[in-house]
Design a protein that fits this description.
alpha+beta; 9-stranded antiparallel beta sheet; 4-stranded mixed beta sheet; 16% helix
Length: 204
């Protein structure tokens, strides 16, 4: 189970260069950032009973680059409980000028927030999400535009859904026109193992 819990945050952590730490009940928050509850004076959006919709623009009505960490985290905790995995740190540390990031993980579902600078106290915004096991996605989550969890890469290219055939670290990436990114490894025979969206940054 621990291996699967870690997998939910591994892809975003790999892309962002962050360290991954399992959450231990009763222990201080991992990483150099001290966690705090969202400001009670700031009203968080009401949590709906419907499934959470992941899109190329964000999570439900929370848009990448605009939604605050406090609001998004409050919504996710209300739906799924406290995260199983958390990580925080500088993107591509120790390179100067890289943003401070924090990632939360619930089983195979991970969400990343990024600051506009390398300051650990700077305000962070929603910048990405990932599902690390498309064969067993969470039942409370669905993809926008009725996208499938496991479309064949060959079908996406044949339908002109994407013209991106990127390769990185032994994985193939297919970015659709709606912003969703499917990821497959060499062993998956062209069937995505992961799907994600947001600002994908790679270390030089």
């Amino acid at each position: 189970m621990t291996r699967r819990l870690l997998a939910g945050a591994m892809l975003l952590g790999l892309l962002a260069g962050c360290s991954i730490d399992p959450a231990v009940p009763g222990s201080p928050p991992p990483g150099p950032v001290a966690s705090s509850a969202p400001d009670a004076s700031t009203a968080a959006p009401t949590v709906a009973a419907a499934r959470l919709v992941l899109s190329g623009q964000g999570i439900d009505g929370f848009r990448f680059g605009r939604a605050s960490e406090a609001h998004v985290e409050a919504m996710l905790v209300a739906r799924f409980g406290r995260p199983d995995v958390t990580s925080s740190g500088l993107f591509c540390e120790p390179m100067i000028g890289r943003p401070w990031q924090r990632t939360l993980g619930w089983d195979v579902f991970s969400v990343t927030f990024s600051a506009g600078s390398d300051s650990r106290t700077a305000a962070r915004r929603l910048t990405g999400w990932a599902i690390s096991d498309t064969a067993d996605p969470p039942g409370m989550i669905e993809l926008a535009d009725r996208e499938q969890w496991r479309p064949r890469f060959a079908d996406l290219w044949r339908q002109s859904r994407t013209d991106k055939r990127n390769q990185w670290a032994g994985h193939a990436f297919a970015r659709l026109d709606n912003g969703l990114v499917y990821v497959a490894d060499k062993a998956s025979a062209g069937i995505p193992t992961d799907v994600l969206a947001g600002k994908l940054m790679l270390c030089d």
